[in-house]
Design a protein that fits this description.
The chain is of the alpha+beta class. About 40% of the residues lie in helices and about 25% in strands. The protein is built from one helix and four strands. A four-stranded antiparallel beta sheet has the order 1-2-3-4, covered by helices on one side.
Length: about 60
Amino acid sequence: MADRLERNELQIDRLENTVNALARETGISIGGPCGECNLGHLLIKQEIMYCPKCGYEQYL
């Protein structure tokens, strides 16, 4: 069980690093969890904050 947990944590770290790098490359900031659906993180680009999962949008 401990080995499985460690593998999962490593995979999450890899995915987090990759998503952060993609965000930097595309000029998108990653915010906190969506307050509407709690199933995605908010993405911030130019003047709009939006959830890629549920489509919630808010203009900044």
